[in-house]
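Quick review question:
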């Protein structure tokens, strides 16, 4: 009976706030966000909403221009329920009440759903937004928080992460990978930095580098812990770049499968040997007239053919096929090293051989840094 009295009182409060909230439209409540402080260093919730709305516009123009109207409407309304009586009394209902009130006020379903979904995922392994509007809005909101916190020195530590930056970063990664969305992480951070420029207290490049490293760490952890890839494979694949998260994950998957080949160790050994010799890339063009051994000519011809094949596979994001094509060079690379002295006394011959090896190194470096892979 005592519990019933408490619950009844709470439900009566909820009914009261639910009815009162409907007397003011969400679009009118949005203005009240000007009085709500998001963080003393990052301004009000209104300022934050303006920033991530601009970021959402940029994302929408690139990835879903046909949904831009609904996306921007949702961006304008998505934080309005923070100043409702219901969310004030029951904070855990943020987004839930925004969706409910948007539906009651005849907003399009895509807008109402995006208001709720932009908070997703709210926990590790939780569902991500189903709609494109919610997905892009979620990315924009989370990225504004992440870059903003890094920009004013509010960095997570080993024991404290008060703004849940790790969870929000992982949320962005999951949305991008599971949708999937092809976008430049670097460009997205630049857009967020541009919106946050008046608030930054840290150097812009320092902030950008910090955020990129933070994303790399979260992506690396996710690929190793959730996908089961070995740390050396993850490190090798991400060393080739992670600006396109979808591409980075696909390269990691392909490399993990490639490592299961019975002859992988000998292939990796040949690639590592090339990488170890190339201290600095030789930018001079390969000159076939400088070849002194048949193994040089054979390797060069194979490299030219393989480059075309690999570039074609990479354009189609077929990293497994690209790796298989590069692996065909292994025998010719071994023959080359057995037949010639790369560091010849003649500078012209030496630089020409280094230029050939640079071409090979750049070919497989687009997929992974094989020096990071453990063998033996």
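Suggested answer, residue by residue:
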């Amino acid at each position: 009976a005592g519990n019933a009295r408490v619950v009844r009182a709470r439900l009566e409060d909820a009914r009261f706030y639910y009815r009162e909230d409907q007397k003011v439209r969400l679009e009118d409540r949005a203005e009240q966000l000007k009085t709500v402080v998001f963080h003393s260093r990052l301004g009000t919730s209104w300022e934050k909403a303006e920033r991530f709305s601009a970021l959402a516009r940029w994302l929408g123009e690139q990835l879903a221009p046909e949904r831009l109207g609904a996306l921007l409407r949702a961006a304008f309304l998505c934080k309005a329920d923070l100043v409702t009586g219901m969310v004030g009394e029951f904070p855990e209902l943020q987004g839930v009440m925004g969706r409910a009130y948007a539906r009651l006020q005849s907003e399009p379903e895509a807008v109402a759903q995006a208001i709720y979904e932009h908070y997703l995922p709210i926990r590790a392994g939780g569902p991500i937004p189903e709609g494109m509007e919610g997905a892009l809005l979620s990315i924009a909101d989370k990225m504004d928080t992440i870059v903003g916190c890094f920009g004013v020195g509010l960095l997570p530590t080993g024991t404290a992460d008060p703004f849940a930056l790790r969870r929000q970063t992982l949320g962005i990664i999951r949305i991008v990978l599971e949708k999937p969305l092809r976008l430049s992480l670097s460009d997205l951070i630049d857009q967020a930095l541009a919106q946050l420029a008046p608030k930054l207290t840290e150097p812009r490049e320092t902030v950008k580098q910090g955020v990129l490293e933070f994303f790399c760490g979260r992506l690396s952890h996710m690929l190793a812990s959730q996908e089961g890839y070995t740390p050396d494979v993850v490190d090798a694949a991400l060393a080739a770049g992670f600006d396109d998260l979808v591409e980075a994950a696909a390269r990691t998957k392909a490399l993990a499968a490639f490592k299961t080949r019975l002859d992988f160790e000998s292939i990796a050994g040949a690639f590592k040997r090339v990488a170890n010799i190339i201290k600095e890339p030789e930018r001079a063009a390969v000159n076939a007239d400088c070849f002194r051994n048949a193994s040089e000519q054979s390797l060069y011809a194979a490299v030219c053919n393989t480059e075309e094949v690999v570039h074609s596979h990479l354009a189609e994001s077929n990293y497994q096929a690209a790796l298989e094509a590069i692996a065909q060079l292994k025998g010719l690379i071994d023959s080359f090293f057995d037949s010639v002295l790369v560091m010849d006394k003649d500078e012209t011959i030496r630089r020409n051989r280094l230029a050939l090896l640079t071409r090979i190194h750049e070919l497989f470096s687009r997929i992974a840094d094989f020096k990071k892979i453990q063998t033996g």
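Why it works: The two ends are 70 Å apart (CA to CA). The first helix runs from residue 2 to 21.
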